[in-house]
Every structure is written in C-alpha cells, then in structure tokens.
Predict the structure.
Amino acid sequence: MPHTTRGNAYNFGFLDEYAKKEIRRAVLKAIAIPGYQVPYASREMPMGRGFGTGGLQLTLALIGPDEVVKVIDQGADDSVNAVNLRQFIEMTCPGIATTTKTAESSLIQSRHRIPERPLTSTQILVLQVPYPDPLVVVEPSEDKRKTMHGEADYSRLLVKLYEDIVKFDEITISHRYPTRINGHYVIDPSPIPRWDVPKLNDSAALILFGAGREKKIYAVPPHTRAEPLAFSDVPFRVEDFRDAAGQRRACARCGCTDSFLDEFVGDSGSKTYQCSDSDWCDEYVLRVEHAQGEPA
Ligand SMILES: [Zn+2]
C-alpha cells in the first residue's frame, strides 16, 4: 500500500506510484550507462519548470520515510529556492527529517554546488539541471546529438574549447564544464563551478542529474571516472582565488582557505569573500572556536 499523507489526497512524496516507478527505472538505466541521458516523462509539478522540478522529481521518487534531506541553492540552505523546495518536501512527505548539515543528510538536492565536505557511500546527491546536453552549443538537432553521443564523437566540442584558447589564451567556461564520464559520454554537470568538477571523479556517493524541462535523467555512479575535457598542453584548472600578491584569499567569516568563495562588493566598492557552502562555513567557525577553547 502506498503511504498517503494525513488529511489530504496526496500520495507520500506527491508523485503517484507509477510516476515514481518510471523515474526509478530511468535512474537504474542511468546508473547502468554512466553519463547517458535517459529520457523520462517529466511530470507537471506545482511550480514552474526551471525551479528545480527535475531534481525535485528525483528526490520525491527516491525518498523513503527514514530519509534525512538537505536542500541547498548556491551552497546555502536558507536561500528562497532551497527553503521553498524543502517546505514542499516536508509538506508532501510527512514525518521526513530535514537538516542543513551535510554530514547528517542521506539525500541532498542541490542547485549550482556540490558540498565541500566529501560525500559518503550512504549519501545520494541530486543536482538540478537546466540544460542536460553539452553538445547543444555545437549541434541544434537532438537526433544528430544522439548519434554523436552514441559514437562518442565530441570533436566539435573540442574545437569549441580550442577556439576559446585561441581567443582568450584559456578555456573560459566557468560553469557547466563538459565532463567525460567513464571514458565515453560527455555530460553537462549542471551549473556547478569548475571548483566542483573534480568532486565528480571517483565520488563515493551516487550523483544524479535531473532536467525537468528537458525531460532527462543521467548519473555519475559511485567510483566512476569523471574527466573534464581539456588538452594535454592546456590542462583543466579550477578557480584559484588568489589576490594580487598571489596569496590565497580566506573566507572573511570563518577564515578557511580551502573552500569555494563568493565575492561580495561593499558600498565603497571594496570586495570581501565568504564560503559559498554555508554548512562548511558554520562547521569551520565551530572548529576554530573549539580549538580556541571558547564556548560554541
Ligand atoms: Zn567560511
């Protein structure tokens, strides 16, 4: 018997059981063929497409009553989009536990970031995807793109990267960096910064991608190779966050020097930098206070 929410007609997890089964089948196929974009019948959700409906459908199809869910947007648990999605999950999955702590979560839905804290084999990361196909910049026909993916023909994508190098002396893609999975399919890893791309490689956690508007699901299964496209003489680089003197910038709040930083411009035009991952920043503050013997 499906769980039903108390006092209303909605199924546990909002989606009906047939919809959940179809999404789970797509997930299994996506895991079996790492990086392959599996089509699915993306359902209408009570929010606009583009607001994370693809990620949300994955979350709701996978969620069980014992799940501990974390929802982040741009690294923060308290942004409007993350709060709305979390409230919707709480409303349609009565009794579900939610958290802001990466370490305590079993299912993480995210937009634009992978948490700084390394994920574990007991966790699943769901990324919301606006545009699933990295070949769309070089080939408008989906039919032709499918053939190119099948043949692992990414020569036109590599030419595009090469043109960047000729024009700008480096590859200028800052987000959605094309990444080859398990030596074959190249994926759009969703708009995560380059900083997060290496976390896809050999990840202990299952990473799932859901594109609601484009009706595609794909996966980077645990311990799978994920290689950003690059050239032997122009290697892939992450953002380096060094100041003019070559010093690695620190987070203005917690002081750590090994996280992805957001830039804030003050009224006077001065710039400050702070961790994008709010849970990582909170934990670091506590660690520093603990080391100094101050009460938390
Ligand atoms: Zn910080």
About this structure: Residues 251, 253-254, 256, 274-275, 281, 284 surround zinc ion (CB under 6 Å). The mean pLDDT is 93.
